[in-house]
Amino acid sequence: MLNQDLSVVAPELVLALLAMAGLMWGAYARSDVSRMVHWATVFVLVAVGFWVGFQPSETTTAFGDSFINDGFARFSKVMVLWGAAAALAMSLEYLIRTELLKYEFPVLILLATVGMMVMVSANDLIVLYLGLELQSLALYVVAAFRRDSVRSTEAGLKYFVLGSLSSGLLLYGASLVYGYGGTTAFAGIALVVAQPGPLPLGLVFGLVFLSAGIAFKVSAAPFHMWTPDVYEGSPTPVTAFFATAPKVAASAMFARVLFSAFGGAVPEWQQILAFLSLASMALGSVAAIGQTNIKRLMAYSSIGHMGYALMGLASGTVLGVESLLIYLAIYVVMSVGVFAFILNMEKDGQPVTEIASLGLYSRVEPARAAALAVLMFSLAGIPPLVGFFGKFYVLKAAIDAGLVWLAVAGMIASVVGAYYYLRIVYLMYFGQPVDGLNGRMPTLHWGLLGLSAIIMVVGIVNLFGVETLAASAAATLVP
């Protein structure tokens, strides 16, 4: 039995052991091995992503059904692993330039990724919390990784304090669910929820507190207050990581809790998600307009995009989960490309984050400007780029579920939000000339930026098969 359990959690176990090995290697090596640990971690994340992606299609469980490995978990884990690998690969040049390259950084990213994989496969509230805290504790540290920076330290402290509050809310919700449901297992909770009659008030309050705690992790309004400051204050590679893998893991965990444990209470949690979606889309589309710092702009952009992702989830259908997965996959690709550009916004060797520095950038680097313009158009959801199809799927899921008002609000927010994306394009091609950016872009960063832009254009053919994979993954979660 133990061997069977260990085989189910083998990818997580391998990553955890390699994280410990990397820590020991860096601590006891006679020379600086930070670069080797860094690239070894990137290779391991990519390799484990392939391993998970090609696992057999059946659903398996471990440790008394508290850990589940199904199609939904595998799809989400591949996004988490490859998103983390891309963010980590991009970070090396920046860490070297800023003298932040330490072997602890990739180890922390690896441990955070293990926590995210546990979150995605959690089938019990206790396992869910273990994965969540493993991720959070590592992210608190990397947010404040630049110890000589007041802003980085402030970002780490804010994230820690507000993260602790959200963990408290989640634990309180879990305790209410356990008290009224008599179990922490999702299957047991689902049996209690499915009983005839109205849902017990204690379970309703537990669901509300659980949703609030998880909403913090996906930076959904009104639990978004940490996002702009942490995005701006953290080292840019950390911001790139925050914008990719953790968003996928938290969203997938949210879907798992709602459908596996509270699948019989869709009307109750649909109201919560509809509010979170509406608030996030509205805030993300309006608050970003006045931003002058591109990292803060991307923070509000991420809040808005999580609103669209939650719209798909709010539909409460298998199509909604499918649209969520498609949207997250597209969002991760777009974020990787944009941050590959932001990481190289420099002037005379100093990082620059002011949007005004992009004035007439197309005359300096026309290829880079064109790639970034494609990504901005895609983030805005302008057809026929792939970003449009991400929004199309979540809007369709919402309309099919009868949430027409939410879909209309989403379309209005998309039109408003397009302004700040198009403003960047306008500055690059028609803005005022400035003595702006002159930093070089490493080949890897150029490749990721160009590849992301190409995917946004070429992917309109069949989304590279992501639609089919997402549909198959969603079918394993929603009965």
UniProtKB/TrEMBL annotation:
Known catalytic reactions: a quinone + NADH + 5 H(+)(in) = a quinol + NAD(+) + 4 H(+)(out)
GO BP terms: ATP synthesis coupled electron transport
Listed EC numbers: 7.1.1.-
Keywords associated with the record: Cell membrane, Membrane, NAD, Oxidoreductase, Quinone, Translocase, Transmembrane, Transmembrane helix, Transport, Ubiquinone
Primary location: membrane
Membrane topology category: Multi-pass membrane protein
Gene Ontology CC: endomembrane system; plasma membrane
GO MF terms, alphabetically ordered: NADH dehydrogenase (quinone) (non-electrogenic) activity; NADH dehydrogenase (ubiquinone) activity; quinone binding
Subcellular location: Cell membrane; Endomembrane system; Membrane
InterPro entries for this protein: NADH-Q_OxRdtase_suN/2, ND/Mrp_TM
Location of the NADH:quinone oxidoreductase/Mrp antiporter transmembrane domain: 122-416
TM stretches of this protein: 6-29, 36-54, 74-96, 103-120, 201-226, 238-259, 271-290, 297-318, 324-343, 369-390, 402-422, 443-464
One Pfam family, short name: Proton_antipo_M
Family the UniProt entry places it in: Belongs to the complex I subunit 2 family.
Biological role stated in the UniProt entry: NDH-1 shuttles electrons from NADH, via FMN and iron-sulfur (Fe-S) centers, to quinones in the respiratory chain. The immediate electron acceptor for the enzyme in this species is believed to be ubiquinone. Couples the redox reaction to proton translocation (for every two electrons transferred, four hydrogen ions are translocated across the cytoplasmic membrane), and thus conserves the redox energy in a proton gradient.
Quaternary structure and interacting proteins, as annotated: NDH-1 is composed of 14 different subunits. Subunits NuoA, H, J, K, L, M, N constitute the membrane sector of the complex.
Protein name: NADH-quinone oxidoreductase subunit N
Species lineage: Bacteria, Pseudomonadati, Pseudomonadota, Alphaproteobacteria, Rhodobacterales
Gene name for this UniProt entry: nuoN
